[in-house]
Structures are given as C-alpha cells and as structure tokens.
Write a structure and sequence with these properties.
The complex is a heterodimer of chains A (about 325) and B (about 290). Chain A is an alpha/beta fold and about 325 residues long. Helices cover about 30% and strands about 25% of the residues of chain A. Chain A is built from ten helices and twelve strands. The chains are: A alpha/beta (about 325), B mainly alpha (about 290). At the A-B interface, helix 2, helix 3 and helix 6 of A face helix 8 and helix 9 of B.
C-alpha cells in the first residue's frame, strides 16, 4: 500500500502519566506514530491499554490534576501543540482537529437543535453569522447523508436514531474542515448494520477530504475493514505497529496473536475462541520491563527489561516490541 | 413524531401540554393575571387617589362608594390596595429575577469549575443560608436604609443562595454528561459551555424555583413593610396598610383584613403556579 500526502498528525515519544493514590504512573509510554493525510491509523487494545489517553493527550483534554503529558511531541496539521496554552488549544480543537465520540446518544446537547449544534463551531471558530452557519449546517447534514436535511435542521437530538446522531456528531466534528479526525470507538454503541454504514460514510468523507484519521477501537473487525496501519497497545506501550495486511497475516507479538485468536470469526467454530489468561495489571502493579510478561506464554528472564520496538522486516514497516517473537533464534 | 419537527423537545412538549391541562396552573395563572392587570392599570382601576385624605369620615365602614372603607386619614382603602399591588409585585418580580440571574450564574460557575472556587462559594452560600431570610432582609434594610431600591436589593440578596445551591447541584450532574466533553473537544471556552450548554439544560428547575421564590419575595416585602422597614409612607404597600390598620383591629378590622386577603390571594396564585410547574416538569411524573 502506498501512502502519499503530508503528515496530518505526528506523535513522537508521547508519555502520559496519570495520578493514582497520590503518585504518578506512566499510562502511555513513548508512543510514536504519524498519520498522513488520507490515511487511517487504528489504535487497538483492550480497556485501560492507554488508547483513549493517547487521544486525550493529543486533544489537550487530560483531566487537570489527574493526567499530564510527561514528555513527547505532538504536531497537528503542521503545528506543534505540546506545551500549547489552553487558549491556543481551544483554537485548534474543533477547528483543525475534530473528534467523534463513542456515545452518540449522550454526546449531543438535548435542549439545542442539531442544526445549531452543527453550526456552533462555525460561528465560534470561523465567526460566521448564525444564518450563514445554519445554512452550512444543512449542507453538512447532506454531506453525512442525513435524509431531508433541510427539514430536520431544526429538530432535536432525541428525534434522531443512534446512527443518525453519530452522523450528526461527524458533521459537527467536520464542520470547520479539520485536517485531522480522531474517532474514539465511533461505532461501538451502534448495531452492526449501522456500524457498517457509519464506517462507509467515514471512509468516503476521508477520501474526498484527505483527512488523517486516528481510529481508536477494540474491534478488530472494524480495523480490518477501514484501517491502513494498526498500532496494538498493551499497558501503555505500543507492542506492534504494522500495516493492516501484515498484522492480520503475520501477527507477531504474543499479545497481538492472542487478540486475534480471541476474535470470534464466522469461518471458525466458536469453541476455538481463546481467552487471554489473567487480566491487565493495575498501573501500580505493572511489572518492570515488558508489561505483558505476566500473561505471556513466551516469557523469558530477559523480559524484565523493556524490549525496543524494532523492525522485523527489511522494509522496516512492521515493528514489534518483543525479545522473543519475530527474532531469529 | 412528524417529519417537520416541532420546535420543542418532547420533555418540553409534554411539560407544556401538562402545564396547559393542569388546573392548578390555570387557576394560579388566572389569579396572577388579574393581579398584574390590576397593578399595571392601577390609575384606571382605583376609584380614588390612594393618597388623597379626608374623602369622608375617618375609619368609615365599607360602603358602596368606598368598598373597603376609609382609613384613619380618610383615604380609600380599596384604592390603596390596588396601588399597593404595584409595589408588591414590582419588588417581588425584580428581586426574584435578579436573584435568579445572579444566583444561577454563580451556581453554574461553582458547579462547573469545582475545587477551590466551589468550596469558597458553597461556604459563603451556607453562611448566608444560615440566617433566617427575614433576619437577613431586616439586617440589609437596616444597613442600606429603607427605599424601594434597597428593599429590592435586600430581598434579592436573601434569595440568591437558594438559586446558587440549586444551579450548582444541577451543574454538577450536567458536568459529567458526554456533551460537555464534546463541547470541550470542539474547543469551546468554559464560558460558552457554561452559559450556552449547561444553562439551558437546568433552566426548567430554575424557573420552577423562581415562581415559588416570587411568592416568598412578595411576602418578605409585606413583612418588612409591616414592621416598618418597607417603602416609606405615604406610598401604599400591602404590608404598610396592614400596619396602619393594625391599631384599629378591634373596631375596624377590615383595615388590616383586606390587604391581608390581597397577600393571601397572591400567595395562593403564585404557589398554584409554582407547584403546577414543578409537577409538569417533573420527569418522574406519570405521562
């Protein structure tokens, strides 16, 4: 797969700490990736692996006093935002980077019309008059294929189904034509047919607008259908970084293999679905070195030291963080 | 739901439908409408100049000419009550609206930011709430001096803490909602989120509270006037008329009874509206 275009979102060495019982723990460790225009990068992992914290760090929305970016660089649409002030970030959020959330049922304000909510970022960031912004809102509703948009611009969120509300959320996120979109579990709350529709819509919009999309999900089926590149996270570390084809054909890190084995598939009988033994340790209990070692079938004494994320193919496009898997023995 | 969307959310539609068919609200509104019309059109409703003395024999009994009799200065009591409605309603409405706006803003700020700001505001609110409302009003009027503006300020200040507390609580519940995070992800400022996104969501409760506080404010105004800290005479106020008639309670009871009835009817009207609105906007009420 050839990926052209400039970098929309660049994250380099991002380490995010969160406070628990009075001390700070690294919940995201040295995460680096680029998302080019027109590319979709998926962050995959189970709950608590740091994928949503990565998104919040990029958006500058870590809860104050509970989370902080300890180190790393973030560049959104060519502008470095690490260390940006709140006012600077307010100008970037919703304007040059959009975000779509997991819960379309609760992410819209129940007492404001959808038209106003789509128009609001345009009035706020672009200084459009209410009339102009609401006219543009109709166009945006048509863009996300909401039927009879002109009639429904004055409707309230409860008058929309979950899938339609997620379309409204996408229209809001894209109102100011940002170059970067973060989609945090955008289809998790939707049923499967609606999921497919929303994913197809996102893919179409991405192609026409050349968006750089960071997709956060735990759903490998979604990853397989829309992502170009996948980063698998475990315990705050990126454990594997590969193109979507490579990842599904040659899953290398033991955690990735276990994740894929745990995915129910229509072409396999259901008793072959394998659970990963144990559970993710809490942050204070994380083992030093490789954080997956407590659940890993390939564990070696060497794992007490954190393995580097290194290439296992000549092109250097498939990176794995493991001392054992993917290395010549 | 029809394709062309009605301009109201279903919570509002049902609240409005319920409000329209709620007998308490209908009766309360009718009473208040009469009172408001009486106050607005006082110069035409009142048969006599409320301050004109010696219209007839002092302390004259109610008659066809003077419906509620004459007071100790020979002034027409009915005319004075009609004009008194102006003061009572004006003080009540302005003080309550002011307290509503200021208290709601402070409450939203406290609830939205939390932390030290919230602790300081809550502490000050608790201190204000620990004074009985009347004592607080008395204190303020005593310090500021009795004039129409100062009485409005005093009554408004006594009502502010209740609105702060209500708005803060509702905002705390709102703050955890996803659409607040969504607003932050769109780069909206705190002020925009507080006043464009939180405020409209808590207005129902604030308005119900306001309608109930309006009654309290009018009662407080009358009480202050009764104990001599109201708008200075000869301006007619309901509390003031009761005070003047109080000395003659044994022989000329109507001097105190009629203004008291005016207050009573106002209280009934406002409380019917307030209770009705509360029922109509209560999400737990049967549909």
């Amino acid at each position: 797969m050839t990926i052209a275009g400039t970098v929309g979102l660049a994250v380099n060495g991002l380490t995010t700490e969160i406070r628990s019982r009075g001390s700070w723990f690294q919940a995201v460790r040295g995460v680096s990736f680029d998302v080019h225009q027109g590319e979709t990068v998926a962050l995959v992992g189970e709950s608590g692996c740091g994928k949503s914290l990565t998104a919040l760090s990029i958006m500058g929305l870590l809860p104050r006093g509970v989370g902080r970016v300890a180190s790393g660089n973030i560049v959104i649409d060519g502008e470095a935002v690490d260390g940006a002030s709140d006012t600077q970030m307010e100008k970037i959020r919703g304007n040059r980077i959009g975000m779509v959330f997991q819960e379309p049922m609760t992410s819209l304000n129940p007492v404001l019309t959808v038209g106003f909510q789509i128009a609001e970022p345009l009035m706020y960031h672009r200084g459009l008059s209410r009339r102009d912004a609401e006219a543009k809102a109709v166009a945006l509703m048509e863009l996300v294929r909401i039927p009879s948009a002109a009639d429904r611009v004055g409707a309230y969120p409860h008058q929309f189904s979950g899938g339609m509300r997620q379309r409204v959320m996408i229209a809001i996120a894209l109102a100011c034509q940002p170059k970067v979109l973060i989609a945090d579990e955008p289809t998790t709350a939707l049923d499967v047919t609606i999921q497919a529709q929303v994913l197809a819509l996102l893919a179409g919009l991405q192609k026409s607008a050349g968006l750089a999309v960071l997709l956060i999900t735990h759903n490998l089926g979604v990853v397989a259908s829309v992502a170009d590149r996948v980063l698998v996270m475990y315990g705050g570390d990126v454990v594997e970084n590969a193109t979507v084809r490579d990842l599904f054909q040659r899953p290398t890190h033991p955690y990735t293999s276990a994740l894929l084995a745990a995915m129910p598939r229509a072409d396999r009988s259901s008793d072959t679905v394998a659970a990963i033994p144990g559970q993710v340790p809490t942050l204070p209990d994380m083992p030093t070195g490789c954080r997956f070692q407590s659940r890993c079938p390939l564990r070696q004494p060497q794992c007490a030291e954190l393995p580097p994320l290194s290439a296992i193919d000549p092109a250097g496009a498939h990176l794995v963080r493991c001392w054992v898997a993917g290395r010549p023995s | 739901m029809s394709a062309s969307a009605p301009p109201m959310s279903p919570a509002r539609v049902t609240a409005w439908t319920r409000a329209r068919s709620n007998p308490a609200i209908l009766i309360g509104s009718a009473i208040c409408l009469v009172l408001v019309l009486m106050a607005v059109f006082a110069p035409w409703v009142a048969p006599f100049d409320p301050n004109k003395q010696m219209l007839g024999p002092q302390l004259a009994d109610p008659s066809v000419k003077h419906w509620f009799g004459l007071d100790s200065f020979g002034r027409d009591v009915f005319s004075r009550i009609v004009w008194g409605a102006r003061i009572s309603l004006w003080v009540g409405v302005v003080a309550t609206l002011g307290a509503m706006v200021i208290g709601t803003m402070i409450g939203i700020i406290a609830g939205y930011f939390g932390g030290t700001i919230d602790r300081v505001i809550t502490m000050l609110t608790d201190i204000l709430l620990s004074f009985p409302q009347l004592v607080m009003g008395l204190l303020l009027v005593a310090v500021l001096g009795a004039s129409l503006t100062n009485i409005i300020i005093a009554i408004g200040v006594t009502a502010i803490p209740a609105f702060i507390r209500l708005a803060r609580g509702s905002t705390l519940a709102m703050r955890e909602r996803d659409f607040i995070d969504a607003g932050r992800a769109l780069g909206f400022s705190d002020a925009r989120i507080m006043f464009n996104h939180v405020a409209p969501n808590i207005m129902d409760e604030i308005i119900v509270m306001g309608s109930l506080w309006l009654a309290t404010a009018i009662r407080t105004e009358s009480t202050l006037a009764f104990i001599g800290l109201g708008v200075p005479p000869p301006t007619p106020t309901w509390g003031g008329i009761i005070r003047e008639g109080f000395e003659y309670l044994n022989d000329n009871y109507w001097l105190a009874i009629f203004p008291s009835l005016a207050i009573l009817i106002t209280m009934i009207g406002l409380n019917l509206i307030g209770d009705g609105l509360r029922d109509a906007t209560d999400p737990r009420a049967p549909q």
